[in-house]
């Protein structure tokens, strides 16, 4: 994130780090998003070229560009959330809670490392194969686009290829970094909810003479965690809506290309195209599942606060003190969640619906394509 200029830090006119983000955004916009979007006008009569334009890079790079801009513009908010995470770590005095937080940090680190390796592998493999095919395809750009200059002559061709490769690497890493960073933030909130539930065990014991003080601390912490989750939701639900819509269109055009390859008479590049379709679809679906998983976990951990209040030894309390717990139980029924533009919540049910819809769409496309070929 520091390499791409989107790591949450101090920003101002005097900070050079404030302007690093202009380089990845400039490369993505000038070498892929703008040229490929402009090229749609010139290929508007050819449906196959439009599908290729949208499926190869245009939608993905545009989503990465918007995510980069959104995350960078919310740098101050992200820094506040990171400071809260650091405060939670310093406040953790019980060794079990420390181990829980370190486990979440280790899981987040593995998710990030795996996603970064996967996205760079996709870019590297695509560029390598396209480079090996240059003797057969001629001076053909990696991503077909319109440029206001002749891209077939030296050094325009070479410089344009370098710009496209740089833009693809920036896009892949920024796309992945934002998703994995948000996953880390939400997993931290979930783990804090889990640690907070443990405090109910000691709250209602007969030897506790500071019930109201301890309960006030629990409520204050619970309210802070809900505000933490709501901040993530408010700042990024629009970005997630655009990502979901873009991924939907991307999967549709990718599926069309894969099916076209299956029924095409020319099977020379069948394995290569299906390979890229498989790994790209897996990559996109894994990122969607990340959001669905953490969204489901956030909702579940929040609602479990009600069960924790009910399962504690409330019968040791006075009627007035036990009444306080019912308020917590009612509040916990309205748990925090992550949404795509307030339209739908990320959970396991949403991911299941996406899988069923995708499989149904694939079967319909294949039937239509084979019927047209016949």
Automatic annotation (TrEMBL):
Belongs to the insect chemoreceptor superfamily. Heteromeric odorant receptor channel (TC 1.A.69) family. Keywords: Cell membrane, Membrane, Olfaction, Receptor, Sensory transduction, Transducer, Transmembrane, Transmembrane helix. This is Odorant receptor. It comes from Vespula germanica. It is found in: Cell membrane. One of its GO terms (molecular function) is olfactory receptor activity. Its main location: membrane. InterPro entries: 7tm6_olfct_rcpt (IPR004117).
